[in-house]
Fold this sequence. Notes:
Chain A is an alpha/beta fold and 449 residues long. Chain A has 15 helices and 17 strands. Chain B has strands at residues 4-13, 17-22, 28-33, 36-41, 46-51, 57-63, 68-73, 77-82, 88-93, 101-104, 110-114, 135-139, 145-149, 155-160, 166-171, 175-180, 186-191, 196-198, 206-208, 210-215, 221-227, 240-246, 251-255, 266-271, 277-282, 291-295, 301-305, 310-316, 322-327, 343-351. Chain B has a four-stranded antiparallel beta sheet, with no helix packed on it. A four-stranded antiparallel beta sheet of chain B has the order 2-3-4-5, with no helix packed on it. In chain B, a hairpin with a 3-residue loop joins strand 7 (68-73) and strand 8 (77-82).
Amino acid sequence: MRVVKHTETNGRGRHECGSPEHRVHRRLFLQGSMASGLASVASFNGLFSIPALAEETKKQGKKCILLWLCGAPSQFEMWDPKPGTITGGPFGAISTSIPGIQISQLMPRCATIMDKLAVVRSMSTEPNEHFQGVDVLTRGEKPRPPFTRPILGSVVAQQLGQLDSPVPQFVLLDPCPEGNEFKSFKAGNWAGWLGAQYGPVRSGGEYSIPDILRPEALSEMDHEDRESLRKFLSRKFENDRRSEAAAGYNAAFERVQGLMSCAPLFDLEKLPQADRQRYGLGAFAQHALQARHLIENGSTFVMVANGMPWDNHVFQHEMHQMLVPELDNVLFQLITDLELRGMLQDTLVIAMGEFGRTPWLNEARGRDHYSKAWSLAMAGGGIRGGVVVGETDPLGFEITQNAIDNRRLFATIFKALGIDPQEQYDLPDLPTFHRVEGDAQPIQEILLG
Amino acid sequence: MQKTLTRTHDFKLPTAILGACLLQDENELIAACMDGVYRVEIGAKKHQRIGTHESYVSSAVYLAQQQAIVTAGYDGKLKWHSAMDNGLLREEKVHGFWSWDMALSPDQRYLASVTGQYMAGDYKYSPAGETEPSVKVLNAADGQLVHALPHVPSVQSVVFSHDSQWVAAGNLMGEVRVWEVASGKQVGSFQSKDFTSWGIIKSHCYLGGIFAMEFSPDNNEIIVCGMGDMRDPMAGNGKQLWQRWNWREAKMTAQTLDKQSGEGLMEALVLHPAGESFVMGGRLRGGDWNAALFDLASGERIGSIKSGFRITQMFFNSKGELIVVGGQGQPGKEADGKFPDFGRVEIYAIGS
């Protein structure tokens, strides 16, 4: 177990794995930046036209794409169908590439790649409302003020990412500006004690990143001079005042600098039309493709959300008949693409929401919140495919085997990514915290190695 | 003049009812339920399940001439059952996706069934084009296909004109298309944007649409119903809404009057046999009624009920009594070793 001192990660400090590959990558990256000169600033794609750099980007450490199914999807219409029962809903079940395992008929494409998927049918968590559920399932733990636990993406970006990369290490793609409880959550402190530099860069829909192109009237040299001056003055202010706010602003400015150099990565129009058609035309599918593109080009963690469309208290089946096939295709395309590119073994793909839906239907034939027994799926990045963990009773009310809580889930995710789940946080004036509390153990049966 | 609606019968079925019809003697009712097709003796409050689909059963109609019951389901099939012995006479796979709704022409010659899976057609989730014809018109007697007609999925409601000359189908986007039954030629269309929500809160996608329709007595207008616009479509708190359209001119002529509606999805609408009023019903989300009688000429609400369950279909018997079917919320716990029944049937006498 390793103890992290707060000062180790403060400011621009970062943990490096220290592997030779990592150093090679950094050197190549800098060479690439210099070799491509101004072109690399104007066009990030130009930067990655250097084959050695592109190859090294692929080889670097693990990455993660979180398909965040906010609002909470129904396990009955996805991974744990109960066809022909009073709770099963209108959709049937289909066989998969793994004998004996069935999933919802709404997921025919995932059925063909079940050997690559690990499904947990026995998630059992405590919060039954969105805000609390989102908090626990994105941070791994209930809040315990004044300690603010960083969101999963921030931890992964800090542990595995490159803070000085021009490519944002943690990206949130979400076109929906509002979203009830998710909106409140989105306004919160994502990176927690790690600091603002590990928060997400947000893009998508109305959050398309504005003003990241250098005005034509401003020369590149002038632009760099201005930035150097800004950096000097703000560092001085930060040092003089020990200001966390100034540090946060600095992180933001530096991020914008990076974004200016990789703006094409955020332009959906630049993605191949054939790929865009293949993934599907809705915002969620388009952003899933963009997530693949970002991961290919150096991002470490991309979270794809679409507001919170899964919260189907009414129109349950009418909505799931659209949402689940979209997710089915997205998962299929994403996992297949990553495998074809030789990236699946290093890229963990997670599809989950903050809880599940009730076995029973309400008066509006919707399903309400249910955290007692629900499902999720993962693939790639250290996860063994073709495995179903846990079981629920014939009507889906109770877990009958191997209940998994948020702590064990996060221990599994961290372990799969090569991050120590048990690491201690030794922070000033706070009790000792751990990356995952309670000595929670990973789900061994779905971990490779 | 205000009317009273007085409940005279009520009973339960095991699961929620999505559609229903009366048999010829009107003493029996056929219920299309989540778990199958039920035949109900109304007076005796007895029921038996006479058939199933591979998913929810969405509609039921009675063919008097053939003494047959036709049911449609979310398995995309139409099934013909004998009204004499309940035996299965025929089944046809009509759609690749659900039959959302099915109607029988008043002359009993034709059935129309509508389908369509809503899939994202662009970044903002406008519906993609159809992958199969959304509207099918069949010979009621033998199930032979007469017309396969195009629409934009999902198509959620269908109705014939009283003279059996026209068939109209309404969809998620509030568009109604009208065809001549004899030729299959489209003869009209209109679109109301008032029934469809595009989520601002929670999600960017479309929800709602037209859930039930009825031609006016002279067949020149169509009354449609559903739920008004919502910022959060999943709240289900849109206005209880009907609109009346001159379908040939694509012109709205009337709609729910101010301060006469509450909130909730309206998914049942039918003309009173006298032709002077209509009744609309659905779910109560806010307000004090979930089914109401409206004067056809003025649009005034002249009577209402609060049933305590979601209404999915309504119709009148020959005595002018109103039959209301639907479902309560599904129980979350067993009682005495079984889940309590949650399908509901009620009958109301209408008085002055």
